[in-house]
Write a structure and sequence with these properties.
333 residues, six-stranded parallel beta sheet, 15 strands, alpha/beta
């Protein structure tokens, strides 16, 4: 298989590096408009072919698939052109800048019978896959809440706000882990230094009573990457910055013994052991690129397919609408 990578800014070189070492890929080409980026990439990864004209990759009959790692405002145009030229597509997150664009790409990929996958990298980490195992096995019980904090000092983006930049990661994780259907979104955000929000809070409500909360911030004094998941049986803390024990499982919870009437309810708190499971340490992006190639080869549906990308964009779009209307609760389909 021959793969092209479009965009060699922050994330593109990582995709390029992993595709070069992915089984089943025998040639990788890359395109970027910036000559300096091409020069740096060629020095670090000389095994790839380079061009300043992305259309060469999209129109070449020798290229089977393309990975697009460009600003989100360009995702729809490039992905649509790639699909129309018969290429399988891997899109950097977020998938598109709107729900309508995401739905259009999904429909086009289906008509062309091509693989459309979104680079929600965290889904392929050993930590998130372990948490999914805990939920699917019933060890955590019913998921009551999903609470995430993703904050740091910078990097400011110019084309999207902090929700589209940072919350996308945790929304993708939530979409993968929480089986219930989101029904409404409320969000608040403030722009302190630019025209886009740099601090924001998002709440997602589900049809079964589960609630999710996201705190994202570009102007925090410390870097935090933490998710708390509360289950009816056990609870999980996922700290992505923790070097050795990223996932911790707490045997803690609440038991209620009720008599007649709410004022006679007896609430008991349960505190048991905590343990940290062993996780698969394989690089997530390596898992992702291998999965992309496997799905193309075997005509399989990717774990992070166009639908999962659309689910995230739908919440992002609703959150943006809520911010615009001062935190109004937005119903989603």
């Amino acid at each position: 298989m021959k793969v092209g990578v479009i965009g060699l800014g922050y994330w593109g070189p990582n995709l390029l590096r992993n595709f070069l070492s992915t089984d089943g890929v025998d040639r990788v080409s890359a395109a970027d408009l910036n000559a300096q980026r091409l020069k740096v990439a060629a020095k670090k990864l000389p095994a790839a072919n380079y061009t300043s004209h992305y259309a060469e990759l999209l129109k070449s009959p020798e290229i089977d698939a393309v990975a697009i790692a460009t600003p989100v405002s360009t995702h729809f145009k490039l992905a649509k052109e790639a699909l129309e030229n018969g290429k399988h597509v891997l899109l950097e997150k977020p998938m598109t800048a709107s729900v309508a664009e995401a739905e259009d790409l999904i429909s086009l990929a289906d008509r062309k019978q091509l693989t459309l996958m979104v680079d929600h990298t965290f889904i392929y980490t050993g930590a998130v896959r372990k948490i999914q195992d805990l939920i699917s096995s019933g060890e955590l019980g019913d998921v009551h809440y999903f609470d995430s904090v993703r904050v740091n000092l910078g990097l400011f983006q110019h084309d999207v706000n902090v929700i589209w930049d940072l919350a996308t990661h945790d929304l993708a994780i939530m979409d993968y882990l929480v089986a219930a259907r989101p029904v409404s979104v409320a969000a608040f955000g403030v722009a302190h230094y630019n025209h886009v929000e740099d601090v924001a809070y998002v709440i997602v409500n589900f049809n079964n009573g589960t609630i999710a909360h996201f705190h994202v911030n570009w102007i925090a004094p410390v870097k935090i990457r933490q998710i708390l998941i509360g289950g009816s049986k056990k609870m999980v803390v996922y700290d992505d910055l923790e070097p050795s024990e990223k996932v911790k499982i707490y045997d803690k919870g609440v038991n209620i013994k009720s008599k007649e009437g709410i004022y006679e309810a007896l609430i008991q708190y349960r505190t048991g052991d905590m343990y940290s499971p062993k996780l698969d340490g394989t690089e997530a992006l390596s898992q992702l690129t291998s999965h992309f190639v496997e799905c193309i080869r075997d005509s399989k549906t990717p774990i992070t397919d166009g639908k999962s990308g659309l689910n995230v964009v739908r919440i992002l779009e609703a959150a943006q609408q809520s911010i615009t209307h001062n935190g109004e609760l937005i119903t989603i389909d």
